[in-house]
Amino acid sequence: MMMSGIQGQPLEVTVVSCSKLKDTEWISRQDPYVCIEYASTKFRTRTCTDGGKNPVFQEKFILPLIEGLREINVVVWNSNTVSFDDFIGTGKVQLHKVLSQGFDDSSWPLQTKTGRHAGEVKLILHYTNANANAKVNHQKPGSSSHTPYTAMPTPAVPSYNHVPSYYPQQPHSNYHHPTTPAVAYPQPPPYPASHNPSSYPPSSTYPYPQSVSSPYPPPSSSSPYPSSVPSPYPPTSSSSPSPYPPPHSYPPSSAYPPPSYPPPAGYPPNTGFYPPPPY
């Protein structure tokens, strides 16, 4: 707990007694007394005559507190009537407990100048404003243990009926896009309809080659093969095979004398084939 605002506040110090003091007398009993030093403030108890090692004092003093000073020096002496007083021991009393709790009745050790144990002194410390300081520290704003709570504003909850758009809406523009996009290359002509075979390919675009004169004689009209199939070489007639070679390849019959009729008996009859088949 913080101990603030103690400047000038009264602190009650009661010197109760001493115990197991170092004895500085050889023949008689010593006469101890206690001195209290707090900054520039000094107090002295009465002399406990023949107090010896366990003197009793029961004396109370009021010390004005100083901010930042948290200890009291205690010195015990032996009183002499002829010579200087004898030093018995000294000790330091811490004030943290009494300033925080308001009360302390501990015994504090004493030491000689060489650091040896010289007994104990019992004090009762009382600080009446400890509870008041505790309340002030408890109510003081900005305290680390009691920080005032500031309510945070309630964030606005969006309506669930409205679905936020995750993409920003494009601003409306007065520019009208063309209905037909620009084409960098000319479009190919459409294909002809499949139900009209006569239009593919067009006769004007892809003309068929003209008929070329064939070195072979044209087939006979009575040929059993279609005209699109090439005729056999040489072409045959439906009545009888044509002689080989064709008759038009020889000179006309007018160049030769007409045969005699009837033919000679030794000439075999004309079978219609040339040369005649073997026998």
What does this entry look like structurally?
The protein is mostly beta strands. The chain has a domain at 10-57 and 66-135: C2 domain (Immunoglobulin-like). Helix content is 6%, strand content 23%. Strands 1, 4, 7, 8 and 9 form a five-stranded antiparallel β-sheet that branches. A hairpin with a 5-residue loop joins strand 8 and strand 9 (117-126). The longest helix is centred in the middle third of the chain and has 10 residues, at 130-139. The chain starts with 9 loop residues before the first strand and ends in a 140-residue tail after the last helix. Residues 138-149, 162-168, 192-215, 221-230, 235-243 and 246-250 have low confidence and may be disordered.
Short recap of the structure:
With 279 residues, the protein is mainly β.
Poorly predicted regions: 138-149, 162-168, 192-215, 221-230, 235-243, 246-250
Estimate the helix proportion, in percent: under 10%
In the CATH scheme, the class of the domain at 10-57 and 66-135 would be Mainly Beta
The mean pLDDT is 70
**What value does the Rg take, in angstroms?**
74 Å
CATH architecture of the domain at 10-57 and 66-135: Sandwich
Question: What percentage of the residues does DSSP assign to strands (E)?
Answer: 15-25%
